[in-house]
UniProtKB/TrEMBL annotation, chains A, B:
Gene3D superfamilies named in the record: 3.40.50.2300, lambda repressor-like DNA-binding domains
Matching Pfam families: LacI, Peripla_BP_3
Ranges of residues in domain HTH cro/C1-type: 4-47
Domain of life: Bacteria
Protein name as catalogued: LacI family DNA-binding transcriptional regulator
Keywords of the record: DNA-binding, Transcription, Transcription regulation
Alphabetized GO MF terms: DNA binding
Domain HTH lacI-type stretches: 2-57
Length: 341, 341
DNA sequence: CTGAAAGCGCTTACAG
DNA sequence: CTGAAAGCGCTTACAG
């Protein structure tokens, strides 16, 4: 490997001078010297050894990406296309900005602390942590962090890049309502965090024209497939009556859709269904799933650029920025009162 | 941050001794000293600064994962569930073995060289490179590398972890043949690399009982969706006649299946369809896709452990190890002559 | 059994 | 405008 010293020797100058032109401390170096060194640097394809760089006062330029999800729906977190797109986009963007991405498994907090300190990362982008887990981590590790899609119990006390779940829920609710489904149900695996916001948006939309949308229209289902399906069986008569189901995830929506289809129930003729996320398979299933789309690459961009600003010492005012969201109408809802556009 | 020196001070010994116990050069250190230092290390949660470690003779313990795919089907490479599962599994396993994963975009070879040298990575796992691109890279970068799913023009001259495409093709062909579809077509976007092997396996299976499977039964379709779909339209009469189509990817299989479904053609009643890969959405579509499954996490394991062995100086005899593959029968093939199991 | 010292490849305040 | 020197946090041959 070729070192600074080697370059200096070739140029007939000192390491100091070479280092100065590399780092742009170029004010006090003659143009001639600059040109000569630059040429050699290029010709030799010199790259500094990051170990030395780290050791001599400069940052590591490593961004840790912490993937803290527990296996969602039994798959590897990175298998989820949302996570994949997010991480991939972060890595692309980091690369053009001259940063490096280190992947860190997030389950074990001590591990995260360990790796982040070892490598002196400049910041962490964290997926799949809740506020409590973040709190534990931040007690042990003093680094800049931005979380993705995390809901705190109270006010935001950390940097978050989220998504406008409330609005997404509202848009779904409003759409269903406008199609005449004013008794539609909302189905989720929990009643907290994003599920809660989505439900609240949905509820709000359903309460147009002075109507009331009671809590009984939020159906919580198990995170175990078998139990979920069983619940759908039990609830089938109610489903058939209300005629429309808004799911809080594409995954569950598609699962349910297939479950109904397999029993000979016509979707959307007998039951209209919506999802949430616009995952990659929303368009692959038939009928194509009507769902809520978010701009994942924008989210990646927001997360990284905000983290970098924090790392540069900037104090960000907003604690929680939200990526916008929009309904994408496909085929899983029967639009009774509404012409297709 | 707490340094070796600090630990040494607390223990009342020299840095050397502390370093010795950390690195297990423990033969010439008294048990008493070992215990004392170990306790302090633990209590202080000491972790070494990797910059120093790298600089003083030890390896970086960084494995670079190069994602060199061009956007497959218009998505981010990491969005592909295969890539996601692979990378995720590699990262998990690396972490338990005390290695770190750096994500590297592979499009620009110079970039890969740059990052790998800067960080003095101990090895590279490379996805989505062909033999030519590997050749270019290896000319500029002297590191241990293992590729994933790469086919060389001739003999293997690099370490590869692949999949038994030939066998997969054979299994599909044999299954279809046994169901009576002895005129089935094979559909792929290229006629090289894995597509070629799959086709050859398929062909071989179709040539049972002295039959002949001509090259005309390999249908090459465009990588542009519009053109693909147009081709399916043109070929529809032939499809209906041969009654079975084996696609070289789940993605194309599902797209085609939906295309037919949208035209009112019954799948599998009128056309049986198979995919390849067993992606996450193979089970989400209706009918569920019959396809070929490979053990992705085993592949991740093979890639990493072989790379580590190479990094440790071992000469691996096998240049190309293949992960096994098996058919998974679902619902997209009508089993005329065969009872469902 | 333990420690002083050299060295890894850089950067940066400082002197000239 | 340029360079000698100190220093970053570790490891390791070597001396005692």
């Amino acid at each position: 490997m070729i070192r600074l010293q080697d370059i200096a020797d070739m140029a007939g100058v000192s390491r100091t001078t070479v280092s100065n032109v590399i780092n742009g401390n170029t004010k006090r170096v003659s143009q001639e010297t600059i040109d000569k060194i630059t040429a050699i640097l290029k010709e030799q394809n010199y790259v500094p050894h990051m170990g030395s760089v780290m050791l001599s006062g400069h940052g590591s330029r490593i961004i840790g990406v912490v993937v803290g999800f527990n296996q969602a729906h039994g798959m590897q977190p990175l298998q989820d296309s949302f996570v994949g797109e997010l991480v991939g986009t972060i890595q692309n963007e980091a690369e053009v900005k001259g940063y490096y991405i280190m992947l860190i498994g997030g389950e074990n907090i001590q591990h995260v602390v360990d790796i982040a300190s070892r490598w002196n990362v400049e910041g962490l982008i964290i997926l799949g942590y809740n506020d409590e887990k973040y709190r534990q981590l931040s007690r042990k590790l003093n680094k800049k962090m931005v979380l993705i899609d995390t809901y705190p119990a109270g006010e935001y006390f950390f940097q978050n890049v989220g998504v406008d779940d409330y609005s997404g829920g509202y848009q779904i609710g409003n759409y269903l309502y406008s199609c005449g489904y004013d008794k539609a149900l909302f189905i989720a695996e929990t009643d907290i965090d994003s599920d809660y916001s989505r439900w609240m948006g949905f509820k709000q939309a359903m309460e147009q024209d002075g109507k009331f949308c009671s809590r009984t229209r939020l159906v919580i289902v198990s995170y175990e497939k078998k139990k979920r399906l069983q619940k759908y069986s039990e609830l089938l008569p109610r489903f058939l009556e209300v005629k429309a189901l808004a799911f809080s995830s594409d995954y569950d929506a598609i699962e349910a859709m297939n479950f109904f289809l397999d029993q000979g129930i016509k979707i959307p003729d007998q039951i209209s269904i919506t999802g949430y996320d616009d995952s990659i398979y929303a368009q692959m299933v038939r009928p194509k799933l009507t769902t809520v789309h978010q701009d994942v690459s924008q989210k990646a961009h927001l997360a990284l650029s905000r983290l970098l600003r924090m790392a540069a010492g900037e104090q960000l005012k907003e604690m929680n920025v939200k990526s916008p969201v929009h309904l994408v109408r496909r085929e899983s809802v029967k639009e009774k009162n509404r012409p297709l556009i």
